[in-house]
Every structure is written in C-alpha cells, then in structure tokens.
Amino acid sequence: LLDISGSMERYTRLFLHFVHGLSQRHTVHTLVFGTRLTNISHCLRHRDPDLALQRADAMVQDWGGGTRITTNLRAFNRLWARRLLTGNAAMLLVTDGLDRDEGGDLAREAALLSRFAHQLVWLNPLLRFEGFAPKAAGIRAILPHVDRFLPMHNLASLADLGRALRLATGPRQAGRSATNTELRHEPAR
Question: What are the CA-CA distances from residue 183 to residues 5, 13, 43, 147, 157 (Å)?
C-alpha cells in the first residue's frame, strides 16, 4: 500500500521498481493512494519495468497530489483486506505519515489493518534523518499498530527490507506498542 502524494513522489518511483521485481517472482498486490485508492497489481506484472510503470501512470489519476491516509486505509480495510491479507501475508505500508485527512480515525484504521495482516511493516522515508521523532499526528496514530518501522529512501534501505522480510518468519508478537515498534526500528544508512 503505497502513498503517491507529492511528499512521497521521489520514493514512490524507487519503490515501484522494487515491487515490480518482486512481482516477477512472487504474488504481490500493489495498491497506491493519494486522494483515492487504486489497484495497480496487474500493471506491475508486465515483464518490462518501463512499460509496467507507464501502464500504472496511465491508470492512476492522483500522482503527486494530496494524500488522505485515513480515507484510503478505511477503503483498503473495507474493500481489499479480507481478499489480499490471507494466510501469512505481510503488509508493507509505504508513507511518510503526514496526513491532513479529517475523514475519520487514523489510529482505528491502522489498528484494523494490523489485525488483518500477519505482519504490518511501515516503510517511512523520514527515518533517514538522524534524530527522527514521531511528532506528526499521523505518525503517532499509526506507529503503535506496526510490527516493524523501517526507513525507505535509497537502494540500501530496500536491500535491508529484503533481508528483514526474509528473517521475519516467526510468530507475530502479541501486544504491539510504540515502545516495541521503536525497538524494532533499524537506523537509516
């Protein structure tokens, strides 16, 4: 689930190339959101990454605009979560958490999403900054509900993500909390 708002634009393209590679070997469902939620999974299954991203570009109407994280998490939970998050599916949420959406309770939607997913991994490019602190309301609302909170801003962080996902095969820990999440935060490179 990938935030394609203006503040995420440079990271979105990088991550889409990563997801395209995963989609060639694994079953991966990719939904993007800015002001609306769009499923681009079938676009990314094309073997040519340039053509795959070109097809996604044509399909998505809200690249680089605003973001409504709460509204889109609610839509995902209602329309997609039961279909896509079966078995031991990991959910990667890629967003900076900078939400101005007043359309509901972000913490409630994040909690529901975490119950659907075997593992909820939040990838946030803001973690690249030394001394990062969860000050924004959106970040504070989501953080207690994630299993892992990792940086996503360059190729090294994507390589670290691959290793982290391969190692994360154990049972889910009960009782997530902001403290537990921060302990699992791995420093940016």
Answer: 28, 29, 36, 10, 17
Whether residue 174 is predicted with pLDDT greater than 70 in this model: the reply is no
Who contacts 132 (Cβ-Cβ below 8 Å, separation ≥6)?
126
User: DSSP letters along 145-167, please?
Assistant: G-SEEEE-SSHHHHHHHHHHHHH
In terms of pLDDT, which residue wins out, 138 or 39?
A: 39
pTM across the whole model: 0.84
Are the CB atoms for 1 and 92 separated by under 8 Å?
Answer: yes
Per-residue confidence (pLDDT) for residue 168, from 0 to 100: 61
Question: Is residue 169 scored above 80 in pLDDT?
Answer: no
d(CA 127, CA 186): 9
Give the number of C-alpha atoms closer than 13 A to the C-alpha of residue 27, restricted to the C-beta side.
Answer: 7
Is the Cβ–Cβ distance between 54 and 40 less than 8 Å? no
Contacts 24+ apart (CB under 8 A), 12-18: 12/63, 12/94, 13/53, 14/154, 14/155, 14/158, 15/94, 15/123, 15/152, 15/158, 16/44, 16/53, 16/56, 17/49, 17/53, 18/158, 18/161
- Please check the confidence at residue 128 and state whether its pLDDT lies above 90: no
Nearest one of 86, 98, 73, 100 to 8, comparing CA atoms:
98
Q: What is the mean pLDDT of residues 178-187?
A: 40
